[in-house]
Each structure stands twice: as C-alpha cells, then as structure tokens.
Amino acid sequence: MPIMAKKKPTNPGGQTKRINVGFPAKWHAVARRLAAKKQQPVLYMLIALMEREAKELGVPDLPPPPWEEESAE
Predict the structure, then answer these.
(1) Contact 10/3 with Cβ under 8 angstroms?
(2) Measured between alpha carbons, how far is residue 68 from residues 13, 43, 56, 59, 71 in Å?
(3) Which of 9, 10, 11, 61 is paired with 38 by a 20 to 30 Å CA distance?
C-alpha cells in the first residue's frame, strides 16, 4: 500500500491580507492617492521626487528614470 502525502493546511479565511513591511501603511495610502491623481505607478512618483531632490543637491551620475528607458527601447 503506497504512503499518501499529507494535505497541506489551507488558510480557512481565504487569501492572507498583504502587509507592507517597508513603508508605513498610512503613508503608503497617501502615496497611492497622489500617484492616482497623476495616473502613474507609485514607484514612478517616488523616483520622480527623488530625482528632483538629487538634481537640486547636485548628485552626479543619476541613472535615467524607468519611463525614459522604456521610451528609448
């Protein structure tokens, strides 16, 4: 008689809610609202803010933002 594999336990409540570990949840909600107004991903909005700050501080050798790399391809 073959040995049958045990069933893996499933989450009885359905899918587990995602937890944002690296970004405070309330600030993530603010970032999502701001990005939605400009109709762009949150990541692109944050990169644009960092790029502007880096240019003001004179940081050399900034990589091109992802939306400029996509249009060059």
Answers:
(1) no
(2) 42, 14, 20, 19, 5
(3) 61
